[in-house]
Design goal:
By secondary structure, the chain is α+β, with helices and mostly antiparallel strands. The chain contains 28 helices and twelve strands. Strand 8 and strand 9 form a beta hairpin.
Length: about 700
Amino acid sequence: MRSVWLAAAAAAALLTAPLGAHAAGAADATAEAPKDLSKAPRMGAWGFDLAGRDTAVSPGHSFFEHANGSYMKRLEIPGDRSSYGAFNALAELSQERLRVLAERAASHPDAGGPEGQVGTLYKSFMDEARVNALGATPLAANLARVRAAKTRSDVARLMGETSKGFGQSVFSVQVYDDAKDPLKYAVYLGQAGLGMPDRDYYLVERFAPQKAAYEAYVARILTLAGWPDAAGHAKAILAMETEIAEASWTRAERRDDDKTYNPYEVAQLPGFAPGFDWNAFLAGADLSKVKRVIASENTAFPKIAAIYARTPVETLKAWLAFTTADQAAPYLSDDFVQARFDFRSKTLSGTPAQQPRWKRGVNLVDGAIGEALGKLYVDAYFPAESKAKMEALVADLKTAMGQRIDRLEWMSPATKARAHEKLGKFRVKIGYPDVWRDYSGLELKADDLYGNLERSSAFEWARTVGRLDKPVDRDEWEMTPPTINAYYSSTKNEIVFPAAILQPPFFDPEGDPAINYGGIGGVIGHEITHGFDDQGRKSDGDGRLADWWTAEDAAKFKVQADRLGRQYEATEILPGARINGELTMGENIADLGGLLLALDAYRISLKGQPAPALDGLTGEQRVFLGWAQVWRAKYRDDFMKQILVSDPHAPPQARVDGPVKNIDAFYRAFGVKPGDPMYVPPEQRVRIW
């Protein structure tokens, strides 16, 4: 899945949290939600915030600052955020709407169906007094099972069981579409075992303070959980994870769809990666009958298995106890909540304040039973006309992509034909699923938060494992309707746009079409281009990982992609910290292609008529401004350091200035000339899609 926005703040919090739940804090804020939540606020009179510009900065100096500079000077990051901008503001509106729905559901304890489940789960989280009274007690049964383990095989089985609840393993396991047979599901195994955001946090000197803080955090959590010799085990755990980090693939390496497709028979695993009891692990995950798996970072497997084999059993048990308590911390008493917040939010992301409890509550419900809550959201807040207008926009963007393929000078007719075939098979999902997820078999109790989370996780894993012998469900969604994001799935060859992103500043049904094409049109184009980025291009129209390019065309593509990577790597975001061009390659290609498609689609929409001017701005200028407006955001320095090593998306300013300087129309629209910092000579501009 390749998204337009990783929502990296959430991704950091999700690092060790099950069910998509965000990191939690203790204090609750009781401020009333806004009374009118029916519509997202409009941006200016016609869709663009003219007052947010800084016209003292020329477009040729920095288009991001020209379009957003005054807004950025006024913008303050809220205390409970590691970053803030257009995405976050819209996400807060979603949270406020979900709060109304969840509180309404919680006030009807006898309601059945999705409303009853939403109300029960939300109520169990909001009962802070009960959660505090229980303290660490909910952990007792899980930790007792860990204490009872005698051998590494026992621990491996318990690691497999973490798929159904709290805790972690040194190897991940998931069930997903088989990349080379996308109508069937496959079991994927991956490297795991790290408690910090990326291997760099263990291996790069600039993260030494965070590494030291992590050791203290491990000891703090183990102490709260009542585990003996917390400090000694924390030191051993950090040493083990550092070894795993050294053995692990980089995030850039893990992006390669070819290199990460490595099928093995389960019977081969003990010989391939000895020292880890694979049969016990798979049995713990209810996968004993599986005969074939796909090992993603396969060359790391023998190294991690060897680390596991030489690590004392007592250290492995302490690590499993820590990961269990760490993941459970948001749903335990205030001392656990505060400890987790202090490290995962304050230390790693620079966030000074905890989110109010109601926000964490709706995030939890959205993560655990998201389509139950999502159905309530769609019924209350998603107008049918938005879906119809989006369908028209998507049609224009697909037409634009077809025309761009035809005009490519570097691509041969044979590859063009296959590209058209793939584009013609694109599926589009807008707003919400046609078939909602059924949670009727999930037992939820208003007085059992911890149990609710365990049962939710087990319920979801049982559904996941139960799909193995069935055809791939092509109607399934990987995001919930209230999510401010969008994605492309290579195995399904589809682009997906949840309901909540179809609002200003991305999409204003009453706004200027040029701004809409620059905003949501750029997002649509971004997702379409993901099907043809450096990894998406490796899958064909049926979603099958297959090489459909001529060797000459692939070589020409790589020349342009490498040039784009070098452009981004030249940007120093913080002292000593630059964009990783290889890690961000797919998103950078998608940004460039998305904006080009938005421009072309806007021209198509005019049907040969001249574009009107608004406040002295031409239509094409407004398309560029619409794109720039959606990326305006500020990041705290610690969070920026984190995303530069862990997020496949470039920081906001680079997502504006990076693409536009490669687009000829930008130079014409804003009169950018040689000598301007944004100027790139025509022969050096990147031309891919």
